[in-house]
Amino acid sequence: MSDKSTSFNSSEKHVQVIARPRPVSDNEKSQNLSSCLNVNEARREIVVNCKTSATRFFNYDHVFGFQTRQQDVYKTVVAPIVDEVLKGYSSTIFAYGQTGSGKTHTMLGKFPIDKLSKDAVSAYMAILESEAGIMPRAIHHIFQGLQRQYVDYTVKITYLELYNEELTDLLADSTSEQPEKIKIYEDKDKTNTIVGAIEAACESPFDAFKVLIKGSQRRQTAETLMNASSSRSHSIFTMTVTMKDSQGDMRLGKLHLVDLAGSENISRSGATDKRAREAGTINQSLLTLGRVITALISNEKHICYRDSKLTRILQDSLCGKTITSIIITLSPANEAETLSTLEYGHRARSLKIRPEINQLSSKDVAREYVDEIRRLRQELDAKREADGIPYSQYTALKNQMMLVQTLSDDNQSKLESNEQQIEQYRNEIEALRRQMLAQQQEFRLETNERKEILALNRHRYDELVQMTNKALTFHEHAVNTMQQLRSTRSTASALIDQYIIDCRAVGDCLQMNIQRMTEDIRSMFSNYSCSIGQVMTISNNIRQQMYVLNEKVRAVLSLAFQNFHTIFEELNQIYSQFQTELDCELKALIDMLAVELKRDERHNQRKLINIEEETLIKMKACFQDMLVSLNPTTQSLWLDLHSFFTQRISQMLTNEFRTLIQISDKSTNDDDQQFLDLPDIRNKWLVEQEKLVTTTQNELEQMISELIQSFNDLSDTSDQDDVGVRSTTLFQRIHHMCIQHGQEIRQLLETKLQNVFSQVRDEFDQQCGHLITNIEHDINQMNSLLQDINTKFETSSPIVTNDSMSHLIKQIQRIDVMTKNLEYDWQLCTQSVDKFECETILPSPPLPIPKTDVAIKLELGIKDQQTQPCLMNIDNKENIIDGNLLPAPVPIRTRSAAVPNIPWRAKTDTPFF
Ligand SMILES: Nc1ncnc2c1ncn2[C@@H]1O[C@H](COP(=O)(O)OP(=O)(O)OP(=O)(O)O)[C@@H](O)[C@H]1O
Questions:
Q1: Tens digit of each residue's pLDDT (9 = 90 or more) over 296-320
Q2: Pfam families from the entry (predicted)?
Q3: Ligand 1 atom at shortest distance from the alpha carbon of 110
Q4: Residue nearest to atom 20 of ligand 1 (CA)
Q5: d(Cα 629, Cα 638) in Å, to the nearest integer?
Q6: ipTM
Q7: Nearest Cα residue to atom 16 of ligand 1
């Protein structure tokens, strides 16, 4: 159930339509009839489940359920309307629906009539607690409102019945045989006025209830097939209320409660004869009402109010100045009539209304008085005629009446003459009243404000008193404390003075420190800028020196090749010289033998043999000497070769090789493993080189032994008779052997030296390559670091913070470490190059091959005057390659002394980044 109430005092509204279906009656249930409706109160929707057509949906301003109580209908729909009547509006509530659908139940309801004869209070209670409908509840509501809101009021009730287009006053005395016919007159201003109807003045709701019951009992009813007590007349119950408020304003409120006759179709109603006529008339009235509604919705110019008395009476209600509501009552078991009623209500909902307040003018009030006097006169006449009043009284009364009439007429004329003045006064009073109301409102606001200010001031005053008390207490405390403070102030002031002096001194000191620090920072920045410049210069120098180093290494390698080439050439020369000498000796021997043979062949035969044997022995000895000279214990070629390899490899492994490995692996974590393996590597290398030298030496020894064996064989197979031939063959064989073995020795030496050289060169490339890569890596890191510092320096804030200072110092330390590393690496590189240049690339001068005694003798004997053949002497010799002047090679013994020991790079020197 909705509690929503509606206000009608605003702008344009539409006619409110409320649907109220009743439950299926017992009679209908016995006929197996059921409801065709579904009700959704929340959505204010009624659904008709049509048997023959599609389901229909209807929406209204309110929709009640089947079991809705009477008081809920009143509270929801009627109470707001009655409130508007009490404000001076006219309102009309229709009940429209099929016969037996509940119109009378809704409008009048059921209440205990018999109790009205007893006391008013219990009757009141009984009515309101019963199944009373809208009419009795509205009476109660109106009287309650009037008593509460207004200083003076009048209530008049008319109760009419429209039956067969004839109006009957239901309040007329039922004893009179022919009740007065009521007529409807139209005024000049087209207002319909009902003449002849009794207006029952009611001073209390009790009076009004009596009137209502009287009228209801008189209402004509007739039986139909549909409803045993069905009413086929329209009843119009009207309450007219005049109200006067405390300001003297008068208003007129009107409430029409219309219980229309059944709206059903005549054929379906089952009425016949007189009732058929009745039914036809009923339908004509309702059809006229429907047409009027349609015309009003369509804004037609001509509205056919005059076609029926019903529409004439209700013209005010329909034309829009009245608050109008229609309650459509529904019989849920009758689908066709229900649909018809729903559509009627739906159409009526489109009617627009614009209610207006009925303000009563003095003219209206005067007319009211005149009507009242006329009514009273009529009553008096009737009374006189009925009861037979004595003439004297009658005359007196008549004179009195005449006097009253005269006075009334005078008053009427005076009233009319003063009407304008009264209206003027009224307007003035209204203006003054409005002004006074505004002033009152202002005064009320001002008073409220002042009250609030006063309350606030009181509150503040209380707070102030409390604070004053607190302040007094505090003052006492303060006085005591002040006395204590005074005593300590003198000592404290001395301390404070001293403290201030100290602070000033510290401040001065701090200021000086800050100035000094600022200077330091400035100088540091300038130093830092210089350092960066220097580092950049060093970096460029390193690059240049790297380039020079590369060039130098390349040149040194070229020189090494050249030296080796020279060595081989000298070896060739030695070999050629040896061969030439041998040939010369042999040739001289042969020549000498030939001379001897020619001179005394026989005598000398023995001598020849001796010479031959001697020669062979000497040659054997010579080769044996040669063999002896190959012994490693003697100072010979092998010794030199052996010592060269041993020294070279040993130094390389102990100094350069290990250093370079360490440098290249400086960023790895397994340095210890590298150090542990180095002695092993070094021993392996030494053993391999020993093996190489020993193998070479063994091969040479083997070859020379074979040569000696050949001489032995030759000596054993000598034939005394064939000395000449043997000697020739022998010499040829010796010559051949010398050539063959000499070439083999030379090739062997050449191959071995070339292997050694290429091995040393590869090592150099590998090791120097690592070193150069390290240096380049360091340079790149340093450059990036410098770039980073420059960027930070340029973008940094001019104020140097502690963080940036520490960062700067850290970076400078890094640069220092890197510079040291670079210097260290560069030193290593330089030393390695120098050492390599001194020891490896420039080999020792080849030693002369030892000569045989025969050769020496022959040389001494034959070429006594000739100069000693000059072997390769590279001391102080300048080598010119491609026009470049290269330094002279250093002798091997001085070279080893010139190589400085390369310092080890300590682990702690590793940069911390
Ligand atoms: N909402 C309702 N709840 C319970 N009973 C109802 C309701 N409405 C109507 N009735 C009952 O239905 C019967 C017919 O109702 P009512 O006389 O009010 O119909 P009606 O429309 O006034 O008929 P008519 O047009 O002949 O006057 C009555 O007995 C009444 O008590």
A1: 888 888 888 888 888 998 887 787 7
A2: Kinesin (PF00225)
A3: 31
A4: 100
A5: 9
A6: 0.98
A7: 102
